[in-house]
Specification:
This protein is an alpha+beta fold. It has helices at about 35-50, 120-130, and strands at about 5-15, 20-30, 75, 75-80, 100-105, 115, 120. It has one domain (about 5-140): Beta-grasp domain (Ubiquitin-like (UB roll), Roll). It has two helices and seven strands, in the order ββαβββββα. Strands 2-1-5-3-4 form a five-stranded mixed beta sheet, with helices on one face. A two-stranded antiparallel ribbon has the order 6-7.
């Protein structure tokens, strides 16, 4: 069942890697629990833009839970509270009305902050160029035509 929640966000804001950053607090009202975490940030950014403020820069690409580009730390955990779930597939139903959510960049010396919670991932390119890879059996994408759907 869809419901709307009101949350407080403490988001890391930083203009670039050479400038000191800090947390800024934002209030997000009437956030649908059916939204993904990134859709919630989109809604916050729309309001910031309407208010004439700089939107939050964040990493995202496929928004399908495949690429891992959306990495950020939510309440001290990479990709948020749901184990095995990318940030774009984390839904707001995992949070409660009145929660305070702390969002910060994935921090590592090899991946400097570009802006806010977006980081420079070009170090991964160097690993690939050097012939490095990771082998993980993740299986194939399910065939949509093979998934039974109940009549209803």
């Amino acid at each position: 069942m869809t419901k709307n929640i009101n949350i407080t966000l403490k988001i890391w804001r930083q203009k670039n890697a050479s400038v000191k950053g800090g947390f800024e607090t934002y209030h997000a009202a009437n956030i649908s629990t059916d939204m993904s975490f990134l859709e919630m940030i989109d809604v916050v950014n729309e309001q910031l833009t309407l208010d004439g403020k700089d939107p939050v820069a964040f990493d995202h690409d496929c928004r399908e839970g495949i690429c891992g580009m959306c990495g950020a730390v939510v309440n001290g955990r990479a990709h948020g509270p749901e184990k095995g779930t990318t940030l774009c597939q984390l839904h707001m139903r995992h949070f409660s009305d009145g929660d305070t959510i702390v969002i910060e960049p994935w921090r590592a010396k090899a991946f400097p902050i570009i802006k806010d919670i977006a980081v420079d991932r070009s170090a991964f390119d160097q690993i690939i160029i050097a012939g490095g890879y990771i082998s993980v059996n993740v299986g194939g994408a399910p065939d949509a035509n093979a998934i039974p759907i109940e009549n209803g």
